[in-house]
Design brief:
Elements (H helix, E strand, L loop, with lengths): L3 E4 L5 E6 L5 E8 L13 H8 L9 H9 L4 E6 L4 E8 L3 H13 L5 H19 L2 H13 L13 H4 L4 H11 L5 E7 L3 H12 L18 E6 L5 E9 L7 H12 L5 H9 L3 E10 L4 E9 L4 H18 L2 H18 L3 H15 L5 H9 L3 H12 L5 E6 L6 H10 L1
Parallel strand pairs: 2-6, 7-11
Antiparallel strand pairs: 1-2, 3-5, 3-6, 4-5, 8-10, 8-11, 9-10
C-alpha cells in the first residue's frame, strides 16, 4: 500500500503507510527544526529541548512517561539533527492511540521544571564530554564547522558547554514558540496503522493549534579550510569534505552512487587501496550526506602519525582517478548496495516512518518507491565520472585532523595534488 497524506488547515501533516503482516507500529512527530535553526546564542538549545521532552509535562512525570510506554512493551526515543528533531515510539497495534497521546503531550506540554533542567543539563554536559573524548566522533563536528564557518549549519548539534550551562526554561520556551508550530510538524506512522483512524486521533490534539510563520534558516555557504587539533593519541584521524548536491539537486543520486563506489564498502576503491593494498588504516570510508541547500561528501580514515601524509595523498589520487576511469561494474555494485540499503530499511516500521517524514518534508509529497529505484538505476558510469570531475574543481576542500599531527601544510599540498 502506498503512503497516505492528510494536511490540516493549520498546516499540520499526517503521513502513514500500512505494512501488512506487521503487528507493531512506529508513530512519531518530526519537527522541521534542528541545530541550523538556532541563533548563535541558542546553539545547543534544540538538542536540550529534545532531552527535556521526556522530563515531565503538566499531566505526566518523567517516570510516568517511561512507564506508560514500557507498561505495554513499547519503546520511546528522540533525536536531533541539523534540520529536524524527532520524537517517536514503537508499540503494538492496540497501543497506537496511547503512543500518540504521550508524544503529543511531551511535545506540546513540556513542564520545563527547574530541577529537571539542572539534572538534564548535567546529562548533556556528560554527553558533550563523551563526544570530545571520542576522536572519530568529534572530528566530524570540527569538519562541519570548518566547511561552514560562522554559520548555523556548521555549529555542533550538542552545542558548546558554556552555552548549555546557561540555558533555562525561558530559552527552551522561546525556541518552541519560534519553531514548533503546526506547519513545522509531521506526524508519521508505519506498520500496523490505519490512516483514517490516525487522522481522527490527531485532530483533537493538533488541528486547533494556531499557525505560526516559518523562520527560514541562513543559507549554507561552503568554505575551503583546515582545522587541526594536536593531541597525544595512538592514531591520527583524517576527515576530508567536498561540497556535494542538496536533496533536490538533479545529480543527488549520482553523488550517492559515487561515494558508495569510492568508499562505501570493502570492495570500494579507498578500502582496497588504503587498507588492503597499502595497510595504512583499519577504518576508511566515504559517505554522501545532504541538506536542503547543500551537501557533503566526507572521507574518513584513522592512521598512524607517520602514515598520515601518504594516506592523504593517496586519497586525493583516488578522487582524481574516479573522475577518469570509474568502471561500469563498480557503479553497478554501488547502485545495488544503495538499493539494498533502501529496501532493507523499509522492512522496519521505524525506518519507514522516518523516511515518510523526511520525504514529505523535502518534496511536499511521498514519491513512490519505484521512483527512487528508477533514479538510482539511471546513474551510469559516465554520470559518476562527470559528477566526480565537477566536484574536484568547484569549492575546494575542508579538512579536519586530530591526534599526533605534524605541522605540514596538508590542505595546500592536497589542493596542489588535486590540481596537478
Amino acid at each position: 500500500m502506498s503512503a497516505q497524506v492528510t494536511t490540516f488547515a493549520n498546516g499540520f501533516r499526517v503521513v502513514s503507510e500500512h505494512m501488512p503482516g506487521i503487528e507493531s507500529a512506529t508513530v512519531g512527530l518530526w519537527i522541521e527544526a534542528g541545530a541550523r535553526h538556532e541563533m548563535e546564542a541558542q546553539n545547543g538549545v534544540a538538542h536540550f529541548l529534545e532531552h527535556m521532552a521526556f522530563k515531565g509535562t503538566a499531566r505526566r512525570t518523567a517516570l510516568q512517561i517511561a512507564e506508560e510506554i514500557e507498561d505495554v512493551g513499547g519503546y520511546i526515543n528522540a533525536y536531533t539533527s541539523r534540520e529536524m528533531t524527532a520524537y517517536y515510539a514503537r508499540v503494538l497495534r492496540a497501543d497506537v492511540a496511547l503512543a500518540l497521546d504521550v508524544l503529543a503531550d511531551i511535545v506540546l506540554n513540556p513542564a520545563f521544571d527547574a530541577r529537571e533542567i539542572e539534572v538534564e543539563r548535567g546529562v548533556i554536559l556528560q554527553e558533550i564530554g563523551q563526544a570530545l573524548d571520542t576522536p572519530d566522533d568529534i572530528i566530524f563536528d570540527w569538519l562541519q564547522e570548518t566547511a561552514y564557518p560562522s554559520q548555523p549549519i556548521g555549529r555542533s548539534i550538542l552545542g558548546p558547554s558554556a552555552r548549555v550551562s546557561g540555558f533555562g526554561a525561558r530559552d527552551l520556551r522561546r525556541f518552541t514558540a519560534e519553531h514548533y508550530g503546526p506547519g513545522q510538524m509531521i506526524l508519521a506512522a508505519a506498520g500496523a496503522v490505519d490512516h483514517d483512524a490516525l487522522v481522527r486521533l490527531a485532530e483533537p490534539l493538533f488541528a486547533s493549534l494556531p499557525a505560526r510563520p516559518r523562520l527560514v534558516p541562513e543559507p549554507a555557504r561552503f568554505v575551503s579550510g583546515e582545522r587541526r587539533e594536536m593531541r597525544r593519541l595512538e592514531q591520527a584521524h583524517f576527515a576530508l569534505a567536498i561540497e556535494a548536491p542538496d536533496y533536490r539537486a538533479p545529480d543527488f543520486y549520482a553523488s550517492q552512487v559515487f561515494s558508495g563506489a569510492l568508499g562505501g564498502g570493502m570492495s570500494s576503491r579507498l578500502f582496497q587501496r588504503l587498507r588492503e593494498d597499502r595497510g595504512l588504516c583499519y577504518t576508511v570510508f566515504a559517505q554522501s550526506g545532504a541538506y536542503s541547500d547543500t551537501g557533503l561528501i566526507t572521507i574518513y580514515a584513522g592512521t598512524g602519525a607517520a602514515e598520515i601524509g601518504e594516506l592523504a595523498m593517496l586519497t586525493i589520487e583516488e578522487l582524481k582517478r574516479a573522475a577518469e576511469d570509474m568502471r561500469d561494474d563498480e557503479v553497478a555494485r554501488a547502485r545495488a548496495q544503495m538499493k539494498a540499503g533502501l529496501l532493507m530499511g523499509l522492512e522496519s516500521p521505524s525506518q519507514r516512518a522516518e523516511r515518510l517524514a523526511k520525504l514529505l518534508s523535502i518534496w511536499g509529497r511521498v514519491p513512490d518507491l519505484s521512483e527512487a529505484v528508477a533514479r538510482i538505476d539511471a546513474v551510469d558510469s559516465r554520470a559518476v565520472r562527470d559528477h566526480a570531475a565537477s566536484l574536484l574543481g568547484e569549492s575546494g576542500m575542508a579538512l579536519a585532523l586530530y591526534g599526533p599531527i605534524d605541522h605540514a601544510p596538508y590542505l595546500s599540498a592536497l589542493s596542489e595534488r588535486l590540481a596537478a
